[in-house]
Amino acid sequence: MVIMLGLVVLAALVLAPTVGTYLDQRQQIAALQEAVALSEQEVADLEAQRERWTDPAYITTQARERLYYVRPGEVVYLVDNDLPAAQVPQEEDEVSDEVAVTRTDWMSQLVRSVATAGLARTAAPTIGVPAPPVP
């Protein structure tokens, strides 16, 4: 009885890695089959799209929708703000009074900054490049 029990334990120890490898391989096969099925579906979708693009009516429809092409004599109306009231973004409240108020005139500050930069005598020398002589 002890010998039989020993043989069963030995068989279990010998077969355990093989069964684990078998189960891993079956899982990989299932994953690869699923990937192949997804790829086949993508190929079918792309072929259907290619077939649609061979139809001149489809091409005309796409040009009219995407590029707003019209035939001579047609009048096109583009509707602005055609979103339903629930989708229209609401105006947000101001964060603070300080952020909304401009303290200085930005144009005069820009001109002053450019003039100051243009009238500067020398710039800081860069590493490895000698500074030009000052007249």
Automatic annotation (TrEMBL):
Presence of the UniProt keyword Coiled coil in the record: yes
A Pfam match: DivIC
UniProt feature coiled coil, ranges: 22-49
Family annotation (InterPro entries): FtsL/DivIC
Entry keywords, A to Z: Coiled coil
Protein name: Septum formation initiator family protein
Species lineage: Bacteria, Bacillati, Actinomycetota, Actinomycetes, Micrococcales
